């Protein structure tokens, strides 16, 4: 493997003869590709490939939400992309056919005090207890951001995909961290169509505090809800 820094031909990505190239944090990393290989279709290998695909889907959904992307950027490893950091943190928890209740959408954080979480065909509702019971907030933290992923599974029509993931977020100005808050995250038209096709779901919910400029200050751990 070779690492090129400040190369005059710009950042490379993809195949170049018997080499492959990728760019991470402005550095081009090149490695030799095998001249030949045999594809293994054994059950164990297929299981890993399916888990890989599930985790890729989950990581992409996480990155689709700006707040979650900003949170993961703060913990990514040196020389790793944000995507790879999310993938590495979730792969062992993913199932071969769908995400599980053990997957995470934030890398730790304070415990989220949730009383009730309900997933309907058009929205998520949740009763958030006072967040200051779990952590201390400073005067700088004036706004909140609620973010959720929902993995729908067990399709009513066997021809449909075994699962689908949707992503939701809501920015709340002048949030009172000392009071209970009734949260509602509405589905758009496309998300409603997804929800209508499945009988079960796993909701992954987090809340982050922000300053007046929109910077994330604190964030909660993932709170999963299977229904």
Concise summary:
With 227 residues, the chain is an alpha+beta fold. It is built from four helices and twelve strands.
What does this structure look like?
The protein has helices at residues 43-63, 66-73, 82-90, 189-196; strands spanning 2-4, 14-16, 19-24, 27-32, 114-119, 123-128, 143-155, 163-172, 181-186, 198-210, 216-219, 223-226. The strands form 3 sheets. Strands 7, 8, 10, 11 and 12 form a 5-stranded antiparallel β-sheet that branches. The protein is built from 4 helices and 12 strands, in the order ββββαααβββββαβββ. The model has no long low-confidence stretch (mean pLDDT 89). The chain is an alpha+beta fold and 227 residues long. The longest helix has 21 residues, at 43-63. It has 2 domains: 2-32, no CATH class; 43-226, Sandwich (Immunoglobulin-like), CATH 2.60.40. α1 crosses α3.
């Amino acid at each position: 493997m070779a690492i090129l820094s400040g190369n005059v031909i710009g950042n490379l990505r993809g195949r170049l003869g018997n080499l492959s190239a990728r760019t991470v944090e402005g550095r081009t990393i090149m490695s030799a590709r095998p001249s030949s290989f045999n594809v293994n279709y054994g059950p164990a290998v297929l299981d890993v490939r399916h888990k890989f695909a599930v985790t890729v889907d989950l990581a992409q959904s996480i990155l689709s939400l700006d707040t979650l992307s900003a949170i993961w950027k703060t913990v990514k490893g040196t020389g790793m992309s944000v995507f790879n950091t999310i993938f590495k943190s979730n792969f062992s928890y993913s199932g071969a056919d769908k995400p599980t209740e053990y997957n995470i959408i934030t890398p730790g954080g304070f415990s989220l005090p949730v009383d009730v979480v309900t997933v309907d065909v058009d929205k998520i509702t949740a009763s958030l207890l006072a967040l200051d019971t779990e952590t201390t907030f400073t005067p700088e933290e004036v706004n909140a951001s609620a973010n959720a992923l929902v993995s729908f599974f067990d399709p009513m029509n066997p021809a449909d995909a075994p699962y689908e993931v949707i992503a939701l977020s809501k920015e709340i100005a002048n949030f009172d961290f000392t009071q209970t808050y009734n949260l509602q995250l509405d589905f758009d038209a496309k998300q409603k169509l997804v929800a209508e096709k499945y009988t079960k779901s796993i909701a992954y919910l987090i809340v982050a505090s922000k300053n007046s400029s929109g910077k994330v200050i604190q964030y909660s751990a993932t709170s999963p809800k299977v229904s």
